[in-house]
User: Fold these one by one.
Assistant:
Number 1:
Amino acid sequence: MFDHLMTPVQRSLRDEARAFVKDTPRDLILDMDADKVKFPREWLREAGKRNLLGVRHAAEWGGRGSDWVTSCAISEEIGSLSYELACVFGVGADLVCDAIVLHGTEAQKERYVKPLLAGEIFAAECLTEPRGGSDFFGATSTAEDKGDHFLLNGQKRFIVGAEGADYFLVYARTNPDESVSPRARITCFIVDRGPGVEVKYQYGLMGCRGGGTGRLVFKDVKVPKENVVGTVNGAYAVFTTMMIPERLGTAAMTVGPARSALDIATFYTSRRKAFGETINQFQGVSFQVAEGTMLLDACRALVYSTARAVDDGVDPHRVRRMISETKKFVTESCQKVVHNSMQVAGGIGYTNVLPLERIYRDIRLASIWTGTNEVMATIIAHEWYREAAAARASRPGRDYVADAAEADASEELHFG
Ligand SMILES: Cc1cc2nc3c(=O)[nH]c(=O)nc-3n(C[C@H](O)[C@H](O)[C@H](O)COP(=O)(O)OP(=O)(O)OC[C@H]3O[C@@H](n4cnc5c(N)ncnc54)[C@H](O)[C@@H]3O)c2cc1C
């Protein structure tokens, strides 16, 4: 994040996260990448002790009542340490707790948010099913109303924290009536790990290892009625608000590893020699680093202005477009930054003598999860056409279509 745009309070919190990053032992990152650590409980516990988890939430629930700009700055710092640590850092405290804080009851906040932000318990978010993640509202997991409880059956896959979480935020179909809109058939639940909840498979991942990512099966799980988040068949409202931490959070944390990669590339190319000169003297090298610097600043600018838009309560449609643009632009640009960083390091960049290959593997997830970038493009297009049509209808500004010499030849402007 840009220092000059941040307040002293925002900078001070960011610096606390920076100190935490500095204090984290290197072995944790290496052991997670080697799948020796299944879930970084102790590290999350320490994050909770330092009061760094979910800083946007009210102090009453264990947060610090801070804003999106600060939260994004912290995510960038944690991401610079390890992309998977940033995943587990955000999933419970930012995603799951957001849903409960915004839509849950006081009792749910007391029982599930407070201890999570203190680093005592952990949570996972369960949207994706084996049959598909993009078509979220086509979910087939079901929760049947049994009077005093719901009976949950179904599967969720690619769940970060499947191994390690104490409770799960699960979306399931509660209205079997096919004539009702899919958006009005789903309910969001808090599900404790317990009888009927089983991790059936742990994935062998390309990167982002050590966060307990697995497939969960729910078989005849009794979920008490008081564990409904929001209203029955009302998960659409929860899902909509969660897309902010999901996608803006992803964008912010993705700047981190790209920054680390560029730092490594800058260090290396300032020392490595070829043809009697340090390789940063060759434009073929320094221009790739320059492109990385430029892209990173563009990413920060987008993250910062979108975070400000959310903080300032800008129109939800505009925010939805900005968040989707930010997620898509930042994740693709950061992947390019990491690609360039490896390229300028030559062969050694492709080995585990430098961390670039791990960062390269980790950051590939960025454009796939929390809604693929193809889904982001669909949202951007939808919101843009909508906004542009409304602007044209109300004609607040100049009509650019008329600025042509033959603008009056309206018969030639065929629209089919
Ligand atoms: C390591 C990892 C961790 C994850 N963590 C979590 C988690 O904690 N919780 C969770 O719920 N999920 C998680 N996910 C799931 C992730 O969000 C989904 O994988 C993602 O949303 C895509 O869903 P899918 O894999 O089912 O692909 P699909 O939906 O099957 O999509 C396959 C391809 O088709 C494209 N496509 C689909 N529909 C359209 C469309 N309408 N227009 C254009 N293109 C389209 C997609 O863009 C994609 O390229 C994780 C995934 C991974 C790999």
Note: The domain at 237-394 is CATH 1.20.140.10 (Butyryl-CoA Dehydrogenase, subunit A; domain 3).
Number 2:
Amino acid sequence: MKITIIYDNTVYNRALKADWGFSCLVEVENTPKMLFDTGANGAILLSNMKNLNIDPLSIEEIFISHSHYDHTGGLSEFLNVNNNINLYVPPIFKGCYSAKEVTSLSRPTAIHNNIYSTGELDNIEQSLIISTDRGLVLIVGCSHPKMSHILDTASQYGQIYAIIGGMHGFKDFDLFKDMELICPTHCTEFIKEIKSLYPDAYTEGGAGRIIEL
Ligand SMILES: [Zn+2]
Ligand SMILES: [Zn+2]
């Protein structure tokens, strides 16, 4: 599987634009291409996609982690380009959308064979779980629910070995001791601390970062 960070507070690839927000493309074999969140600004989302050679028309699904503008701001502009989309949202998300189909996920749910949602946790946010041969890969928007709650919920599907995304306010660093890949990006405040505690697992984020697992 492959994860491409399209939108982030920082850039990994200088051809792209940095902006506060998060979005990544999730590509799993034999599964529709899925966009995780849409950043804050549709124009930046689409231009970063173009620079990464990602065709918006090749995307069939969008997973929205939570309602904050820096994750949903690009959605309506994306749907203007391609609305042939299955949209997965937490129930708290009450945006206006023109997607083909909208599914609201209030509890842990299998979206595909190897792809799950934690469902909306703590009434604010859902996280995406991809099951691989090496364990679970967890993608988080801002981690507004308690990290222990996110990890416990995801763990029902197996052992978590990678976490990627925004970890707002997270400092229960012990929770990550068994992770093999940690990519704290977007709104993560304690990136330096995570990097110095787990130098081998630490992976730099930023728009343009491609993580193949
Ligand atoms: Zn947020
Ligand atoms: Zn955010």
Note: DSSP finds five helices and 13 strands in the chain.
